[in-house]
Amino acid sequence: MRMIDQRMGFEPFDCAPALRLEAQERVTKLQFDSLNRRLDKFEELMERLERRLWLTVYGVVGVILAQAFQSLLNAVP
């Protein structure tokens, strides 16, 4: 196609539909990048929440075991 354009004396150019498609592809890429960043942040928040939950569970189990141990110590003179 470019050979024909150069033979006729025309300079190559981008057509409007191709430019619109290119712009749409860039916008779509930006949207996906933004979505991926938000998903990464969400995963980090979920991991922190899970760690806090396990710390709470271990804390509750620790308190129950401490009370059981203390009642055993009080029962044995």
* Helix-and-strand structural type: mainly alpha
Mean pLDDT: 87
As a percent range, the share of strand residues is: under 5%
* Helix-residue proportion: over 70%
- How many whole angstroms does the radius of gyration measure? 33 Å
| Gap from first CA to last CA | 101 Å
Overall geometric form: rod-shaped
Number-wise, the strands total 0
Give the secondary structure arrangement, pairings included:
Layout: H1 2-8, H2 16-75
Task: Describe the fold and architecture.
- The chain has 77 residues and is mainly α.
- Helices cover 87% and strands 0% of the residues.
- The protein has two helices and no strands.
- It is rod-shaped.
Short description:
This protein is mainly α.
What keyword list fits this structure?
about 80 residues, mainly alpha
